[in-house]
UniProtKB/TrEMBL annotation:
It is a multi-pass membrane protein. It is found in: Cell membrane. The chain crosses the membrane at residues 6-24, 31-51, 63-80. This is Transglycosylase. Belongs to the UPF0410 family. Keywords: Cell membrane, Membrane, Transmembrane, Transmembrane helix. It comes from Streptomyces malaysiense.
Length: 87
């Protein structure tokens, strides 16, 4: 992976993570770095799922892929927040 791919993964992960945080109601007790990590993981898994169901490459914006990624980020942030709250 090239440096531009890493930078774009971080930027997309940041965007997906922030949007995932906005979807989850209430205050989350996780930091910005965890939000980015969850966003990057959600973006990668969401892209794989979208490719698997055949909606990854469309002629316009990939709205379904974005929705999948944001939903995965919201689930990941909720799970991480609950795991950290138990400590």
């Amino acid at each position: 992976m090239e440096i531009s791919g890493i930078i774009s993964a971080i930027v997309i992960g940041l965007i997906i993570g922030v949007l995932g945080r906005l979807v989850v109601p209430g205050r989350q007790h996780i930091g910005v770095l965890w939000t980015i990590v969850v966003g990057i993981v959600a973006a990668l898994i969401g892209s794989a799922i979208a490719a698997g169901i055949g909606v990854a490459d469309t002629k316009g914006p990939d709205w379904i892929e974005w929705l999948i990624q944001i939903a995965l980020a919201a689930v990941g942030i909720s799970a991480l927040d609950r795991a950290r709250a138990r400590r």
